[in-house]
Amino acid sequence: MNNISIRWKQRSSIILAMITAALLLSGCSGSNKPSDEDQLKRAKLHYQLGLDALYKNRLPKAFEEFMLAEEIDPNQPEVLDALGYAWRIRGDLEKSEGYYKRALRAGAGSATHNNYGSLLLQMKKFDKAKVQLKKALEDPRYRNQFMAFINLGDAYLGLKQFDEAIRTYQKAGSFNLKQTISRIKEAEAHVAYNQLNYAQALYEEMFKEESANRAVVEGLVNVLKLRNDRTTARQYLGKFMEQPSVSKLDRAWAADAMMKLNRR
């Protein structure tokens, strides 16, 4: 979950029309040499247009706008962070890392530390990820601490520091009580730690609250398979398939999982 898309979803489409108009007007100004202030405004407007394109899954357009913004002002932390995220989506992790490093040198804050830490997790650089994610959490005003704690838990889990991972996932849960992500992560850590009894108990508690949640059922079934309890696994899959809110795709997944259990 990247901070860029979260911020932009909250913007009105009216802003986009205003941005476009401002770009056109600034391009038609009487001065042949725009002032530094005008240039910075244009860079900001291109950045906003890039965010809009990114939100709409128009990656080439997002690159075009972000690169224009970078050309006008090469040291905008937000633009460099956005380019880091765009390159990550495109699959070039090394270029993504380079832009995140540049953003941090330009003065980027907690959001970029979190985004860079998430990239490092994907690159399996868990020690470096832990450093970045701890820096993200140094500012108590950072609004996305929930995800930073989850990412930090993933770093500890990658380092096989199971107790720290579990504690960190629990901290994440305290920031957002109405979610199951951190609890699922905690259960996965208990599985990795070979604490299958506790992992099963966590999944069963979650299933009582969200019986149509595929991630919960999938985790629970995996634990039961590890415990060689295929009968109970089939029962939970059956209950899951009975839920009216389960999507067609998730129902098909459950049917396939049931078939695999029945073959053994």
Summarize the structure.
It is built from 15 helices and no strands. It is mainly α. About 4% of the residues have low confidence.
What is the topological layout?
Layout (H helix, E strand, L loop, with lengths): L2 H7 L3 H15 L8 H20 L3 H14 L4 H14 L2 H13 L4 H13 L3 H11 L8 H14 L3 H14 L5 H12 L3 H14 L4 H13 L3 H13 L5 H15 L2
Helix pairs in contact: 1-3, 2-3, 3-4, 4-5, 5-6, 5-7, 6-7, 7-8, 7-9, 8-9, 9-10, 9-11, 10-11, 11-12, 11-13, 12-13, 13-14, 14-15
Describe the structure.
By secondary structure, the protein is an all-alpha fold. Among the domains are: 1-108, Alpha Horseshoe (Serine Threonine Protein Phosphatase 5, Tetratricopeptide repeat); 195-264, Serine Threonine Protein Phosphatase 5, Tetratricopeptide repeat. The protein is built from 15 helices and no strands. It has helices spanning 3-9, 13-27, 36-55, 59-72, 77-90, 93-105, 110-122, 126-136, 145-158, 162-175, 181-192, 196-209, 214-226, 230-242, 248-262. Helix 6 (93-105) packs antiparallel against helix 7 and helix 7 runs parallel beside helix 9 (145-158). It starts with a helix and ends with a helix. Mean pLDDT is 90; it is low at 21-31.
